[in-house]
Amino acid sequence: MLASLAGCGSTKHIGMWVEGDGRAPDYDSDGVPDNIDLCEVEMPGVPVDENGCPWDDDRDGVANIIDRCPETYPPAVVDQWGCIIDGDADGVLDVVDDCPDTPPDTLVDFAGCTLDSDGDSIADSDDLCPNTPDGLAVGGDGCANSVAGLPVLQAVHFEFNRDVLKPTADAVLDQVANYMSANPEVRILIVGHTDSLGTDVYNLELSWRRARSAYQYLLGVGVSPDRLLLAGKGEFSPIDSNDSKEGQARNRRVEFLVVE
Length: 260
Hints:
Elements: E1 152-154, H1 169-182, E2 188-193, H2 200-220, E3 228-232, H3 245-251, E4 253-258
Parallel strand pairs: 2-3
Antiparallel strand pairs: 1-4, 2-4
């Protein structure tokens, strides 16, 4: 029958069907009337929320009662038991992930492995020269240097703790310019480095300024800006120990790396 108003001391919604005993129908016996039950499935004894749906505390779509991994919160991708099926969160499901333990924030290919666009064994996320030609030997930063045999602008070529080039730097930079003239197809990455004295922020800025000084010189002798790239790595790529003055001097340098 259809209850229109209150009866027996309780209020019922107009238009709501009730059983013969005056109660609203509850097909699955979960305590939530059918007219507001979003999950009318017979699962006796299963705790439900106000919508009549099984509790799912981690909101992964798997009810608590069968969830074997109850703390897998979105956007985790889970299986029918509520457990992650993309363990390294790289967007490639474990079932097809050839590299299931990729570090966080690493760019990966369709197989879930570290992306290495130029195939030089240096991950794109660490590669300062991501387009080096096939077969070109590269260093830990993904850039080639030994093939070109380019010189290094050492600390002796700079004013102490400054980015001002000394006259002795001209000969080194002229070698770089001559190399580029003889090899018009290549570009050069100019990378500044420092020792570990001073703060990280200061050293990073100083390494950029020194690289830019070399860049400006090369522009001045006719090298096209389209063939020059700049980077500053501060104290983070030493080639010697910073525990000695000699090592510190070697680490204060500007390198010229072949890009292509």
